[in-house]
Write a structure and sequence with these properties.
This protein is mainly alpha-helical. Helix content is 45%, strand content 0%.
Amino acid sequence: MLKTIINIFGNKCPNCNKGKIFEKGLLHFSFSFPKMHENCSNCGTKFEKEPGFFFGGMFVSYGLGVAEALITYFICMPFFEETFDLRIIPIIGVVILSLTLVNIKLSRIIWIYMFKEYSM
């Protein structure tokens, strides 16, 4: 399990654990949509199994966003007097927006790993 998590954050192929899924790393920021390889450069595994395969990755991205919002809320709570201060909302928004590109890549990688045994 720990090796799988390390490979997910390392942008590694789920089949051979050597090839890269995205051209750039998980934490590489640019102003364009992240470029993803069609196949693994090492073993040839096809990452997009069928058209619309990554539609389900949006649900993973939603879960990551909710987790980030909750973590941000619990980290910020000791700095405010009230239980729910409205000043926390912009902080949560900034955190979620700043991690958007990471969430796109990470959700696709997690989705690929969830269906790594599926083949067409």
